[in-house]
């Protein structure tokens, strides 16, 4: 099945909704972001969960020691590096590297382990942009690596993206929000369901 990550979780209710909907991963922003929360807030959210998806922390060009400290304190299962971090970044948790697709070009993925995350590039946003991009640029990489697609996904388009490109996973934040930081329960459920329906269609 396609992995589903609901990112930019800011409160316990959003985390519970994502977990109940069947999300495989939830993401917390510990970087410069509208959706940034503190490690203490994230830990409280995790402690309030009945069902615990895998926990991913998002960081942008933060020191290895800081990332490691947050990962241990919150109990993260993986760290997502969304900046210009060098290959070989050291952490005791698995590293999920976000690569930015610019002008139809996918950055060299070879130094980084699977899975990889592909997002759209922006001149003024270092984190997620919420903007779609030309998915066909990733076809070759999708065929040989485990790739999570991000950028402009929402309940209305994610099913077709999964059917067409068969990614390892999909990632959404603003596409399931009522407004920044506030997840819309029906959109979260519809997003996960659209992915599962597409999985069934693929057999």
Walk me through what this model shows:
Strand 9 (177-179) and strand 10 (182-183) form a beta hairpin. This protein is globular. It has a single domain (3-202), classed as Alpha-Beta Barrel (TIM Barrel), CATH 3.20.20. With 203 residues, it is α/β, with parallel strands linked by helices. The chain is built from six helices and ten strands, in the order βαβαβαβββαβαβββα. The longest helix is centred in the C-terminal third of the chain and has 18 residues, at 185-202. Strands 1-2-3-4-5-6-7-8 form an eight-stranded parallel β-barrel. Strands 9-10 form a two-stranded antiparallel ribbon. It has helices spanning 12-21, 39-47, 64-74, 139-144, 158-165, 185-202, and strands at residues 3-6, 25-29, 54-59, 78-81, 95-101, 116-120, 147-150, 169-172, 177-179, 182-183.
For this entry, give a set of tags.
203 residues; alpha/beta; TIM Barrel; 8-stranded parallel beta barrel; two-stranded antiparallel ribbon; 6 helices; 31% helix; 22% strand; globular
Count of alpha/pi helices: 6
Low-pLDDT segments: none
Return the string of H and E elements.
Answer: EHEHEHEEEHEHEEEH
Rg estimate, integer Å: 16 Å
Largest sheet: 8 strands, parallel, barrel
How far the N terminus sits from the C terminus, by CA atoms, comes to 10 Å
**Principal-axes shape call:** globular
At CATH level 3, the topology is TIM Barrel
Secondary-structure map:
Blueprint: E1 3-6, H1 12-21, E2 25-29, H2 39-47, E3 54-59, H3 64-74, E4 78-81, E5 95-101, E6 116-120, H4 139-144, E7 147-150, H5 158-165, E8 169-172, E9 177-179, E10 182-183, H6 185-202
């Amino acid at each position: 099945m396609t992995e589903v990550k609901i990112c930019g979780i800011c409160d316990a209710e959003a985390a519970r909704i994502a977990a109940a909907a069947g999300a495989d991963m939830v993401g917390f922003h510990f970087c410069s972001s509208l959706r940034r929360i503190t490690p203490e807030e994230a830990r409280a959210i995790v402690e309030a969960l009945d069902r615990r998806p895998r926990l991913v922390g998002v960081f942008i060009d933060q020191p290895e020691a800081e990332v490691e400290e947050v990962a241990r304190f919150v109990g993260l299962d993986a760290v997502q590096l969304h900046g210009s971090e060098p290959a070989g970044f050291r952490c005791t948790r698995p590293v999920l590297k976000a690569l930015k697709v610019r002008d139809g070009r996918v950055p060299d993925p070879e130094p980084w382990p699977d899975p990889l995350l592909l997002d759209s590039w922006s001149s003024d946003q270092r984190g997620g942009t919420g903007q779609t991009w030309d998915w066909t640029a990733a076809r070759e990489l999708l065929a040989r690596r485990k790739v999570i697609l991000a950028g402009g996904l929402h309940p209305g388009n994610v099913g077709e993206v999964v059917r067409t490109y068969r990614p390892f996973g999909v990632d959404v934040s603003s596409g399931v929000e009522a407004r920044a930081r506030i997840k819309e329960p029906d959109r979260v459920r519809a997003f996960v369901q659209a992915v599962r329906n597409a999985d069934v269609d693929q057999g």
